Structures are given as structure tokens and as C-alpha cells.
TrEMBL record:
CDD domains: Voltage_gated_ClC (cd00400)
Domain CBS: residue ranges: 468-525, 532-588
UniProt name for this protein: Chloride channel protein
Gene3D superfamilies xrefs: CBS-domain, Clc chloride channel
Keyword entries, A-Z: CBS domain, Chloride, Chloride channel, Ion channel, Ion transport, Membrane, Transmembrane, Transmembrane helix, Transport
Cleavable signal peptide: none
Superkingdom of the organism of origin: Bacteria
Main subcellular location of this protein, as a coarse class: membrane
Source lineage: Bacteria, Pseudomonadati, Bacteroidota, Bacteroidia, Marinilabiliales
Membrane topology listed for this record: Multi-pass membrane protein
Gene source species: Paralabilibaculum antarcticum
Amino acid sequence: MATNTRWRRFLIWRLRHINNQTFILILSALVGIASGMTALVLKTAVYRGREFLLEGINWSYQNYLFFLYPMIGVGLTLLFKKYIIRDFIKHNITSLLHAISKRNSIVKLHKTYSSVIGSIITAGFGGSIGLESPIISSGAAIGSNMARNFHLNYKEITVMMACGASGAIAAIFNTPIAAIVFALEVLLIDLSRFSLIPLLIASVSGAITTKLFLDEDILIEFAINNPFVIKDIPFFILLGILSGLTSVYFTRVFLWIENRFEGIRLLRNRLLVGGLCLGVLIFYFPALYGEGYNMVKALMVGNLEEVFQSSLFENSTDVWYMVVIFIGAMVFLKVIATSITIGAGGIGGIFAPSVFTGAMLGFLFVYVYNHFQFGQALSPGNFTLVGMASVLGGVLHAPLTGIFLIAEITSGYELIVPLMLSTTISFITVKSLQKESIVTAQLAKKGELITHNKDQAVLRFMQLSKVVETDLKSINEDATLADLVKVISKSKRNIFPVLTEEGFLLGVVLLDEVREIMFNEEMYTTPISNLMIMPPASISYDDSMEVVLRKFTKTGAWNLPVIDNGKYIGFVSKSKLFSAYRQHLVEITAD
């Protein structure tokens, strides 16, 4: 009670002494720092946990541990979900987009910590996932709950969600620009000074936090050893096309496997099937263990021995076709391992797996070209980096995020031209074959996706229940014109729904249609059924706003009835729809 009293006093003090704009900036810094600290805990815990589990083991038994560890991690994560947080909600970017579109940007409080703990367990035991989506989910939850506790409005809560996500990405990669771009490309639908400045503050705060406290050997950094040369442009174009096709494969396989696991009702069966499949994959291909950034770093310096270590191909690094088979297998198997880990019950994301897949693709492209000596040798490091950006941008449908992420990770813009070229071509290729990305496909299928198309975004925010008018006077099906006149005398509307005793809609009577006879007493015995007409269309209570507008456009009507399983609910007027549309448009776009 005392805590609530002090909190109310603080809120009153804040309203009196800090204007809202200044407070938003202060809060964005706090959200960024909190997200940065969360990312710091996550990365350190997973890194040290991996060292603890693998330190001092006999390499001849390592693969057996690789078989067991991921299953143990997924099993512990399932127990954590079932008995600790008691919630099986997804911890990914899709869930954040759903919160924005359907939950007024409110994210459950437990996601501030459950995403992190679950991913620590999953990734710490070698689950083939990325840590970025859980930390983005946790950062967004921090921003959402902070904003809600300070009683901010929907738009401000959404911005704080984006601040938490951008602060998390900036912290985990030390890439503040890419973090802002991600928030604008994926989470927010409008760019304005209102959202941009808080995003800048949160991203910088998150990046500084981990830069101060995170061990250098945990940071993800790559160096460019060879400059970009103009003659390589045709090869970067080809890599962009291949990256686009790989992104489509990645997306479709992930969604297919995820749907298959959702069809397995019993959790123990999910764990058994997923654990065994994942264990077999990692047993034979240990490079799939964990996030895979250590494998990418090894590729960047040409250390194939580390990538091939403990695999079936361990002694084949000098045989060119064995290298092609192994690296090619990594391109196709990483998404399978990732989707199995998540589908079986683990908590993780597809950021790192898509970067891993792109790195393998870029290296494979150069390796084959250089082996057959088609021309002057290409730089493996450059094409590996560009492949990372191209596949990431293609999988997320966020090309700018891929471009700036790799540019910042390499601490320079030496490769900005090939990054832009290849990632753009990858994105164009993907969009021509796969309309929705991994993070938007399920929401788009349900009609719950918020897009950068402001018309569609506004319609997603509008709720039919908010625009239904229920003040129209109804009349019974057995009534006469005399009964209707009495109803008209008490009504301020010119439409009168005709209902059965059970409340089912039979038709409507329009005032204009009875105006000339309503004072003719000789007509008072006329049954209401002779006066009513059928509405040109009806609106189901479950219809989306896009469907509602299409019905208005098709019929040319100004008012349409709303029914639920045949029963009358009320009417929707075109004028009220336009008024609600304008109000929502102002709310999401005003600076």
C-alpha cells in the first residue's frame, strides 16, 4: 500500500515538473540501458555456459554430448514454460507484431525475463537457435511495461516497445544504426521525429552498456581483409540471386516444420521427436551446435578445420568436393535444426541462423569459383559477409537491416556497395516468390498484420465493435404501420430493423419509404412485412474492417446492419467509419 502511494506521488510530481516530450526521451534512455543489461546477461550466460559444458571433455565423446545436450536444453525449457511461467506464448518478433496490432502494444510482464531465461537454457545447451529474437522480445517487453506503468498512450507504448527492441539489437551486436533501421523496417509503421529521437537514444544507450561491460571475446566482430573491386560486381549480383532463393527455402522450410510440430499435441512427443531429430543432426554435423557465430568467424579466416571438427568430414578439408558437400549441407540444414529446436519447445530466433546460412552460402560460392579458377580469385571474406547480409535481409524482408548490420559489425563501409547491391537483389528475388516473411506470414494469414501501408495499418487498428451503433429502435415482425408510427415518434434515426422474437433480423424499414403514408390512418393496419425491405448486404461481427469497407463500396450503402450468427447487433454507418479512420490515422502518424 505504501509503495502504491509513493508511486502515485511520483506520477503526480512527474506531471507537474517534466513535460511529456522530455519524459519520453528520459524513458527511452532507461529502456535502452535496461535492454543493454539484459543482453549483457544473456550473451555472457550463454557464452560461459557453453564453456562450462564443453570444457575438458574427451573429444572422442564430444559428439555424444552434442546429441544429448540440445534435448536436455529443450526439455528444461519446456518445464520452465509449463511450471514456472505457465505460458506457452511465443518469444519471437511475430508475437511483438501481434501485440502491436491486437493487444494495444501490451506485452506480458513475464516476457521481460522469461525470454532471456528460456533462451539461456536452450542456447546454453547447444540448441541451434539465435539469441537475437529472445533479447528483442525481452527488450520490447521492458519498454512496453515501463510505458504502461507510467500510463502512456498506445502510440507512446509502441515507441517504447521499439526502443526496447532497438536497444537490445544495438547491445547484442554493438550496431546502433542497424538497430534503429530494424525497428523502423519491422516494428514501426511510420517515421517521425516523435519516434526517431527516442530510438536514437535507446540504441546508443544499449550499445554503450554492453561496450562497457561485455567481454571483447564475446562481441561479434569481423574484419575486412580485402578491398572491394569493381570487377566483382557481376558475382555479387549472382550471389544476390542465390541468396534470395536460399531465403525463400529458409522461410518455407521453417514455416513447414513449425506447422508440423504444432500438430503434435503432447509436449513429450514434441520433445521426443524434436530432440531425437536435433540430436542426430548435431551428432553428425557439430557445426550446427549453438548459434554458429564461432563457425562464421572460423570461415572468415579460412579455418576449415574448426568448422569440420568432429564431423564426418573432419579429415576431408583438403578434398574439394567434400568441402562443397559439407558447406552445402550447412546451407540447407541450419534452418532445419533451428526450426526443430523451436518447434520442439525451445526459445530462440532466426537472426543468427539466417546469418550463419548466408555466411556458408557466400563462402561456398567463392570456394567453388576459386577452385575451378574461372578467373582472378575472389575474396572469401567479402563474399561471406555479403552473403550474411543478403540472406538476413531476404529472410526478414528487411534489406536495410542486413546492410547496416554487416556494415557496422565490420566497423566500416568498405563493402557498402556490394552489400547494397546483393541484398537488394536478394530482397527483390524473395518478394517475387514469397510475399510474406517468416515473422509476418502467420499474422498475414490471420489478417492481423500491421504493415507500412498506412491505409491497411489503420484498418487493422480499427475495431468493428467500436463503430457499431446500437441506438436504433427496432420493431417486431408482427407489428403494423400503427406500431411503427409510435416507434418513429420516439426515435431520432430513420432506419428501423425488423426483428423476430428471438432477435433475428428479417429486414429494415426506411423512414423515407413510409413518410407519405405514416399519417394516413386508413393504412395503419398494414403489416410491417409489407413495408420492410432487405438491406443490400449485412456485416458479420467477425468481419475484418477491409471486408466491411468492401461491402460498403460494392453496395454503395451508407448504413449496413451487423449480425452475429443471424442475430441483430446494430448498424454501422459509413460516416462513422470515416470519422474513426481519420482519428486512428492521426494517432499513428502525428509527429
